[in-house]
Design a protein that fits this description.
Layout (H helix, E strand, L loop, with lengths): L3 H28 L3 H5 L25 E4 L2 E4 L7 E7 L10 H6 L4 E4 L10 E5 L20 E6 L18 E4 L6 E2 L3 E5 L13 E6 L8 H9 L5 E4 L9 H9 L1 E7 L10 H8 L3 E5 L3 H4 L9 E2 L6 H13 L1 H5 L8 E5 L4 H13 L9 H6 L1
Parallel strand pairs: 3-4, 3-5, 5-6, 6-7, 7-8, 10-11, 10-12, 12-13, 13-14
Antiparallel strand pairs: 1-2, 9-15
Helix pairs in contact: 4-8
Main location: Golgi
Pfam family, one: Glyco_transf_10
Enzyme class: transferase
Length: about 375
């Protein structure tokens, strides 16, 4: 039998149960939460399409991913991807499109050759040597207003077609010119953290030259033909019927005291791997190209020998003979290697990474109105 006193003890509990029941009834009648919200954990977003997850801003509650060769690489949750579409693959040369991430840790840059990405790309890259003279292989649709078109060329004006219609077409330039919107070099020197000891590779040849395109009308060929009358020059390459593979190149050049770093044409800032590769291999380059002052904008003045410093090829040959007999004088041309090291660039993909970085960091609208005047003069 329940007494009045016992009823009073249970009254607060009963009131609490009634209130809780009323609240739950209200919750399910009017708010109606999703069963999935109640019972399933939040899942990460993992996309199988390399580009699907890269065109939208990601919130802090999800993870965007790129899929490359079956490997899923998480992107930063608060970063939007920058997409660069290589419209004309340079010389059809395929490359690792994940290079920007693996080499420079640029997880935010997507390089693609898939033209289906046209409407989503932040920029398009056009390799000049692959543009048809009638421009028929360029996009025929109107450019999206946010998209930038980049003219890319590492060849000199002498060996680049000057097509009509190039003006008022591009937004940006990617070129070896220092005043290009996106400067791109064939190589560069980087200061080492500590001075290091340089060991000279074994030398079995005095002067070497490797050339594929041997043209008797080129200035470099005419200079060589006179120079070889006064000093022995070991020649290699298709131009001399002696093909050199990439693997053989280093062995040949490192075994030469001097290398003829003769450019195929002479233009400001046009300094190619013909100089940087011998420098990296411990060989003194003898350069023929732009002015000495221009070379010194990129490398130390005592790291190379310039043909312009001599009145004739014979005078140059005489000087090389002097250096050959004097190790102290010769090694002065290699002292810089104690403080610097040469870095090469990976064509074309490294330049694409620079373009992607530019698109990401520079939001200014630009239009290049006079490409032909700027480049061909």
């Amino acid at each position: 039998m329940t007494t009045p006193s016992s009823q009073s003890k249970f009254r607060p509990i009963l009131v609490t149960v009634l209130l809780l029941g009323g609240f739950m009834t209200f919750l399910f009648m009017y708010i109606k939460p999703s069963p999935q919200w109640l019972y399933e954990p939040v899942k990460s977003v993992v996309c199988s399409d390399q580009f699907t997850s890269t065109t939208e801003q990601v919130t802090s509650k999800s993870i965007q991913s790129n899929t490359t060769n079956g490997q899923v690489t998480p992107a930063k949750s608060d970063e939007k991807k920058t997409i660069l579409l290589v419209w004309l693959v340079p010389f059809g040369q395929q490359n690792d499109l994940n290079f920007c991430k693996s080499r420079f840790n640029m997880d935010y840059c997507i390089i693609t050759t898939d033209k289906n990405m046209y409407s989503k790309a932040d920029g398009l890259l056009f390799h000049h040597r692959d543009i048809r003279g009638d421009l028929s292989n360029l996009p025929q649709t109107q450019r999206p207003p946010y998209q930038k078109w980049i003219w890319f060329n590492m060849e000199s004006p002498t060996h680049s077609g000057n097509f009509a219609g190039l003006d008022n077409f591009f937004n940006l330039t990617l070129n070896y010119h220092r005043d290009a919107d996106i400067p791109a070099r064939y190589g560069y020197l980087v200061k080492t953290q500590n001075e290091k000891k340089f060991e000279l590779p074994s030398k079995s040849k005095l002067v070497c030259w490797i050339v594929s395109n041997y043209n008797p009308n080129h200035a470099r060929t005419k200079y060589y033909n006179e120079l070889r009358q006064h000093i022995e020059v070991s020649t290699f390459g298709r131009g001399f019927g002696r093909y050199v593979s990439d693997g053989d190149y280093a062995n040949i050049v490192s075994g030469c005291k001097f290398y003829l770093s003769f450019e195929n044409s002479i233009h400001k800032d046009y300094i190619t791997e013909k100089m940087y590769r011998p420098l990296s291999l411990g060989t003194v380059p003898v350069v023929l190209g732009t002015s000495r002052q221009n070379y010194e904008d990129f490398v130390p003045g005592d790291s190379f020998i310039h043909t312009n410093d001599f009145k004739s090829p014979k005078e140059l040959a005489d000087y090389l003979h002097v250096l050959d007999k004097n190790d102290t004088l010769y090694m002065r041309y290699l002292d810089w290697k104690k403080l610097y090291e040469v870095k090469g660039t990976a064509f074309w993909i490294e330049h694409a990474c620079r373009a992607c970085e530019y698109l990401r960091t520079d939001n200014e609208y630009k239009a290049f109105r006079s490409l032909r005047s700027w480049y061909w003069g």
